[in-house]
User: Which sequence fits this backbone?
């Protein structure tokens, strides 16, 4: 019998569940950096990745995580799949399910696609991002990165800036970080401000200057033009002038403020080059590195007997 523990979102996790995953991820991070032996606990497991949207860091780090735990990984490729011969999404997932993989890691543009799959496939379903709804492993790796940099999460003020309305990263982060006791601010123009939030107590600002002062963490986001009427958004130079994270705005936040971005970054649109590349203040590549131990923790949690 396959494992059927899924990770479809942060919403269903308690603060204790999140902390346990972060502790496990930190142990893997320590082992990866010290070169300690990692037990191949997923040696007999087969994992299929199904990415219906593009990805560099999420897919690769899931793959690396699975390899480090000894699992076999098979990539289903949308472009060469039978979807291109008009097979439906449902028939595609029933077909993949009939091969009895132990887990499927899925990224999909449709709202709750991983939840739909979890009801129809006899294996663990791990959400690698669905629509604007949830991207749980990104929120976990972000929380791990914050905990490493600041030593804690409770009591920190975290500003999430830019295209919050269309961002699954923002949604999952708001849930994870507020469950862990952080104070959340959202800074966005009206047309990128969500109409409602997945958690209570979010402070909203329409100006960067007002919202950034005193923040411990500044989380920037790419404008998700593929999920909006992009005629509503100003040109890149204007957006950068109004909402880009520049050195001046970072200085305004204060010397304690550290910068994050889930990637892919659009340089000199939402974030200035020198801020993105700042070796002390920017945690962007650290986030990427933390993707591997975080996903190891999630895979082991979902797949271990
Ligand atoms: C994001 C995503 O795909 O949700 N990236 C990621 O997974 N690190 C954000 C984005 O595409 O802008």
Assistant:
């Amino acid at each position: 019998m396959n494992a059927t523990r899924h990770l479809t979102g942060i919403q269903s996790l308690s603060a204790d569940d999140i902390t346990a995953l972060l502790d496990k991820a930190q142990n893997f991070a320590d082992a990866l950096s010290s070169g300690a032996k990692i037990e191949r606990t997923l040696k007999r497991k087969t994992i299929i990745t199904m990415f219906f949207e593009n990805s560099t860091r999420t897919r690769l780090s899931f793959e690396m995580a699975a390899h480090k735990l000894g699992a076999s990984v098979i990539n289903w490729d949308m472009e060469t799949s039978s979807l291109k011969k008009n097979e439906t999404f449902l028939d595609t997932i029933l077909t993949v399910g009939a091969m009895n993989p132990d887990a499927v890691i899925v990224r999909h543009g449709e709202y709750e696609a991983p939840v739909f799959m979890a009801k129809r496939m006899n294996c663990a379903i791990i959400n690698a991002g669905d629509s604007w709804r949830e991207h749980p492993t990104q929120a976990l790796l972000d929380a791990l990165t914050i905990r490493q940099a600041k030593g804690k999460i409770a009591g920190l003020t975290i500003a999430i800036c830019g295209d919050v309305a269309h961002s699954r990263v923002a949604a999952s982060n708001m849930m994870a970080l507020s469950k862990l006791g952080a104070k959340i601010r959202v800074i966005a123009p009206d047309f990128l401000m969500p109409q409602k939030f997945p958690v209570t107590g979010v402070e909203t600002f329409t100006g960067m200057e007002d919202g950034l002062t005193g923040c411990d963490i500044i989380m920037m986001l790419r404008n998700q033009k593929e999920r909006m009427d992009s005629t509503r958004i100003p040109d890149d130079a204007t957006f950068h002038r109004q909402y880009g994270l520049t050195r001046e705005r970072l200085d305004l936040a204060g010397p304690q403020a550290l910068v994050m971005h889930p990637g892919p970054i659009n340089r000199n649109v939402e974030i200035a080059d020198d801020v993105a590349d700042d070796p002390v203040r920017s945690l962007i590549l650290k986030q990427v590195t933390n993707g591997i131990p975080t996903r190891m923790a999630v895979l082991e949690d979902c797949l271990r007997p």
